[in-house]
Predict the 3D structure of the following.
Amino acid sequence: MSKQYETVIGLEVHVELATKTKIFCGCSTEFGGAPNTHTCPVCTGMPGSLPVLNKQVVEYAIAVGLATNCKITQNGKFDRKNYFYPDNPQNYQISQLYLPICRDGHVDIETEEGGKKAIGIHEIHMEEDAGKLVHDEWSGCSLVDFNRSGVPLIEIVSEPDMRSAEEVIAYLEKLRLLIQYLGASDCKLNEGSMRADVNLSVREVGAKKFGTRTEMKNLNSFKAIARAIESEKERQIDLLESGEEVIQETRRWDDVKEYSYAMRSKEDAQDYRYFPDPDLVPIIISDEMIAEIKAKQPEFRDEKMERYEKEYGIPAYDISVITSSKHMADLFEQTVAICNSPKKVSNWLMVETMRLLKEHDMEPEQINFSPENLAKLISLTEANTINSTVAKEVFEQVFAHDIDPEKYVEEHGLKTVNDEGALRSTIEAIVAANPKSVEDYKAGKKKAIGFLVGQTMKEMKGKADPAMVNKILIELLEA
Amino acid sequence: MDLLELTAVALGQKIQKKETSAVEATQAVLNQIDKVEGTVHSYVTVDQEGAIKKAKQVQEKIEAGQLTGPLAGVPVAIKDNMCTEGMRTTCSSKILENFVPTYTAEAVLNLEKAGAVIIGKTNMDEFAMGSTTETSAYGITTNPWNKEHVPGGSSGGSCAAVAANECFYALGSDTGGSIRQPSSFCGVTGIKPTYGTVSRYGLIAYGSSLDQIGPVAKDVTDCATILNTIASYDKKDSTSYQRESYDFTKALVDDVKGMKIGIPKGYFGEGLDSEVSNAVMAAAKELEKKGAILEEFDLGLVEYAIPAYYVIADAEASSNLSRFDGVKYGYRAEDYKGLHHMYKKTRSEGFGPEVKRRIMLGSFVLSSGYYDAYYLKALRTKALIKQEFDKAFAKYDMILGPAAPTTAPKVGASLADPIKMYLGDIYTISVNLAGLPGISVPCGMDSKGLPIGLQLIGDCFQENKILQAAYAFEQTRAYKSPFDK
Amino acid sequence: MANIISDETIEYVGILAKLELSEEEKEQAKKDMGEMLDYIDQLNALDTSSVEPMSHVFSVHNVFREDVVTNEDDRENILKNAPEEQEGSFVVPKTVE
């Protein structure tokens, strides 16, 4: 390949908002109900039903817009996007084309070289989600479930400012954190509460004009996104190299086959006949409303990181891991507020929590234990009530079931034995029973003491204070 | 006097005074339906059993003193585009032939709360698209005055049912004249309220920005009383307008002294039947005699209302009617190959020609490359038309004119030439574009014995002015029924 | 007639509107649509360049609901009119190949 190519990427990110109800009706947005149990005439497109806008959706959309440096549209409206598909009960989706709620923003991402790069945000608009189709292989039918129909979404449309998969991931991470910090969504890619469509084109390095782009859908993880970008980039370069043209089209990514295919259909004219929805009235956003939402914005990650450094004095690496999840950062701050040991709290989060998350294939957002119970565990170790081995065991219970460590230690008799008399007699018996080790030790093999410590801990069922065991053993052996 | 000849309010009073009962009135209406429905065919569905049952329940509540309102126990007919829980609602379309709603339209609920007895659902032009009630998939309705003529449309069933005493009053809906024009043709009184006054929740949409439910009745008093009951601010309808007052009956005063009435010269030009013209002008003179001040003026842009209307209404309709696809309710075609064929076959078999014509045009004007030239152009025209009315209402309390250029045409004479049929809406359509209230009151008969309607158009939220003038005019003549002759 | 509607246009609008017209209906539709567009073209005589398009007649705005769940499980009613139903869902011809 002689020519050098540049990849130009723009993203359309759909985020499901964390409202209790749907965008245009009072149905629950809760996940996992039996089919069509969270539906009503409005979200199933019954004749005569009418939409009424959920105020929280507007507030969340504005909050995300402010967090991404957008201008807020103060006189907006909804439009209908007309297309036939069974997951779309009215055969039009209520969305915003002409006057989206936010425009002209940007977020900064860290580049691989350690610098900063601004990724432009073209617009953010509000819209309703579609229902779900389940395909029945036996009958050759599809089943339609409208539980997700009408769940509020915002679509964040970036400018074509990204040049690599790494930048795309960094941008997505950045958006995810901002939105999670706002509490506007949990942004789970695997569960579909955050979805990204990738618009990609290639052009020769130095070219001014953009190449023809394709849109890739069905990307359910950061890994899938990275793979799809690589694959599509290569496909387009191959086309150009062999003198062919890239066709503007929508492609569906199959992550198992690591291959995308065009979603073409004669019946899919892609002419959506947008027009203002006459059933909904304009949305006028006052300066006061914007100021109010601004005042309620939380501390975002960058500010948090700075504050942690000053306030808690924990290592920069710890700070970056802890603040990578709003939930973990909240947990950290709440626990420190109780036990006042930032470094210890950080350690539990950094080491054991991360280990268990990985082991259970969980996200930090799914951490389920309370700050109170972690603080209690830390107090127990600080008071030497339990030793570190027991502490790890107890923490696993805290992690899994959010148990009360004090009660648990009590009920399971896990307290460290601090009765020196009892410990001494146990050790005396062990020394007596292991003359070989004693001999070795006396002969200068100081390591032999390890075996005796182990035997003692075994006898004490792990509840002895290792420091005390060592001290008594040395006394006895050197006597 | 025959019970059936009573107005709704007069019947309500007799029921309250125990001179008759809801059951007796319902039975009388059902007997009348038996007698005339074979010719008139006002109804798509008559719920005989349900009506009697309901009448009994209502009568018990009346006797217990729980229902004391003016419409308690009075039998009503509902246009078949308003959802009624448990009662088939078809929009006179094959595509909804088996649709039984699971909820009731807000306006109908308001009537039920007031003790109305629903007799059934009235015939209409399919999805309210038409001016003759001939586009119904369930057969035509004839004009009770002369069965060779149409009742008008699209609320032809409601207006014919009132005229033929097959109910005491009815609800209609008006998107471009669909209450006022058939009221005029059937010799009954119908009012289209200001947009947003009656909730559209449960009204199966045709043109959402234009649709409005309103009463069809024997006189102005009934209309005002019904409007008191059905009008409400409804949180379920985002376009519902919270009004300062919902008292329309206070307008029932025989006094038009000093009222300024504008008469658009353009309304009385080419295309207007001379008998209609004479009757309407005679009515205007009656109001003048009572002290109203008449003035002719130029209302601009009259000729642009119809083309703007058809762009807007058809565009909205093409989208509103896309939900009828054979998936969730209604008709589904048999024998199809795959999803899109199912859609196409279902819709092609389920919709009639006029509905398809409008969906095609509406889809076209919204399609890529035409949106600005047609749809936005029409919305701009609408803004200009609204300005013209604003100018007029700065000078006049109301505008007076005919409701339709002719009396009821003969059955079968209209559908062949759509544009000519659309031109018949010239006096009513601009009122919908501007969201105004308009009332049609009978003002005479032509030489063929067909009724003529007078239309009064008010400024937004000024129903009471036109009701008052209509009431005053009504005092100068007696209500005529097709059975008087 | 100034507006000549082609077969392609009728075909295309049929795809958008999901209507399948017979040959006879297509010819009629071409004629009707052409005539209607000619009629609508009257609007071009009107200078609207300085006028904002008017969607809503009144200045009603910001009609909101609070974010409170008001609807319970109503599946039975929602499915009552379904032409075909299975396992609490609406049934359609398979949407994927």
